Structure prediction request, 664 residues.
Amino acid sequence: MTGEIERELSYVDAVREATEQEMARDSSVILFGLDVDDPKAIQGTTRGLLEKFGPERVFGTPLSEDAMTGVAIGAALAGLRPVHVHIRMDFLMLSMNQLINIAAKSRYMYGGQVQVPLVVRSMIGKSWGQGAQHSQGLYSFFMHVPGFKVAAPTTPYDAKGCLIQAIRDNDPVMYVEHRLLHFQRGPVPESSYTVAPGKARITANGSDVTLVGISHMQIECLHARRHLESVDIDTEVIDPVWLSPLDIDTIVESVRKTGRLCVVDNGWVTCGASAEIVALVIERLQQIRPVVVRRLGFAPTTCPPTPILENLYYPSATTIASAVYDLVRGGDNGWMPKQRLDREEIQFRGPF
Amino acid sequence: MQARFYKAIYRIRRVEEEIAAVYPSDKIKSPVHLSIGQEAVSVGVCEALRSDDVVFGTYRSHALYLAKGGNLRRMIAELYGKADGCAKGKGGSMHLIDTHARVMGASAVVGTTIPQAVGFAYALKLQRKDNVVTSFFGDGAVDEGVFYESLNFAALKALPMIFVCENNRYAIHTHQSKRQKLDNICERARAQGVPAEQIANNDVSRIYECISQSVGQLRRGGPGPFFFECLTYRLKEHVGPNDDFQLGYRTREEAEAWLKNDPIERLGAQLDPAERRRIEMEVEAEIKDAFAFAEQSPWPQASELYTDIYDG
Prediction:
């Protein structure tokens, strides 16, 4: 996908560029949310947009997530394409009535006469003491509800392409960003392009085991793959990119080959994206070939801010590699890779 | 104007009475929250609006839908769950819509459409259109946080819209005085910078005058929003076709005061008897036609179960 692209951008700039290009292309696109027009500009993802497009199309809002979500829906019903930004996904809990009862259902319960082309950008925090209410990856709530689409891009390339797609999409899209991914750099074309819903990426080929990593866990999975190479385990890594619609075919085809599946999520495993992916794969392959599965995600507890406990809370490249090792070799081997490549990636030094 | 008011109110009343009459047959497959007793508010407001002005309603929106020009045949077909319903049988009584009449939706969850009306008004202002949006809700919605958030944003942005609180004093069976320490809904709006006025007594003419004046100002580019608390009364049970005085949460005497002052009798008495009779016959014929239409409309195809979840 990116072989010929020379320009590198950060994830932050990819998000900003996608928004700027769509706002320039289509005057019905508006951008709002708490602090989108403040000096920090949502980690830089909205920088310069107020100056370019003016305060009617780019505005900070009162601290009224519930009503402002309804405002976004009403504006969408009137023909605008709102992008509503939440600097933490946890804040979305104040918007759930509007999102679940109206945004997801309007097209259906009004007999196809209206549509809600709404994008909700929401960020998942991690590390540096983010704690209980700045760290949750709650996108499975939206996968659960018919009518919503969910994108969780990992790379700057997909960040730009998914956001442009989400803005042009005629359905409500939950666009999930991980705070640590904001620091990722990668090739991003200058021109406008879309990353279509319902197509996963095989990010590394392998034959022994299929490793699905969602959002930031994709980065950890790619590091885990390097650990596993050292013990001659050949890992196929898949990035779903879109969680709804979910490209289960690509994952099933991989597991049909490997017979082993480990899904690593940026959320809790219970009733989560990993549960859904594993269930779909088993439903498809159970009569065809034996499959062993494993899910990894947040520890089933509340996220603690203290680093000693926080490190135990998240899957990492080493714990992923260890779990995959057991999945492939069988049993509980207690093998752990020595290096901590995963920690090298984190440039985040707080406070937000 | 009195004849227009009379026809609109009589028509809604008679539609609701027919729904109540048909309801025991179980042909109507939808919980109905009848507007009987509250018709004057929707009529007074909508008669002052243009057909391309926008309204959002509540689960008790039969009156609003009809007053704003929603298609009667398609409303009854919707209640019957038929393919010709205004939402193809997929919305039901609580989610009436008619995009041609710009009835843009109604929600079963109290207060939920208020911010959508605000967002629609924001879009209209951005698009430099001269339409006005009216948000209908009840006194129960005033208990909800989203009410205050919505008023605040509408006032902050001076949006071209009107908030209409249909205060019938009850949230299901719970009186306003058990939910709100002060009976001061208009003051709450004023506290957010929104001009507000209470209109008592189902006074359709006064409602029409007030809304006309507000709409005129908004149409000329004056700052919104405006707020009206219209005191009214639900005569039937919260949901369903029956009386409910036996429940004991309200008295028959309380209702008698409103019945004595019923806009239908008040307005009807002002009309020439022959004209009144002509209006009533027109309405009866239209209602008969609408129920026949619903009866003969087909059921939705099975494929409709999965249609309109997503685009395309």
